[in-house]
Amino acid sequence: MRKPSSPGRTVATAAALVAALTAGAAPAMAAQSPASTKPAGDQRFCWLNADTDNMQCFETEAAMTQAMQQGTGTGQVAPEGSAEQRAAPMLQSGSEQSKQRVVGRFYRDINFHGGYLVISRSGGCGSGYHSADLSAYPGWNDSVSSFVAGSGCRIGIFDNSNLSGDFYGNYRSDAYATPLNDRASSAQFVAD
Fold it and tell me: What's this model's pTM, rounded to 2 decimal places?
């Protein structure tokens, strides 16, 4: 016959069981982080291929550039000159194998500084009107402070998803998107 345990021992055993279960569940919960969670601090540079809806983030700008070159078969346009020219998006021209063009680059900080998100798509803005729901991509909802449009494009940003709410833009670039600084949740790209 089994001896009944004391109430204190039962509580301690239950607490140990809860702690063990919680410790095991924490990694699974962390893996299912919501879309508003920012990329890890070492992943400052992100590239969104709007054709495939695939976003990749990288620790360095060089690693992202290499991935973009491999993924699209295009070269990098070296930034030079004014602040806007230095911030000009890469991959302004594509190869025969790929028609990917940068439609915009969104920076976390003013004056084209900090980490950034590059969005590319087939045909660039010349293939019509396009949009991106920034709130759908980890770390980019309510994070944009400046932006530069790709070749032949203009950018407009909205403070809500699905191109709704307050609007600011239809500009080639803006070093400080004051009205919607750290509030943009979606963007539109139109031909210049």
Answer: 0.69
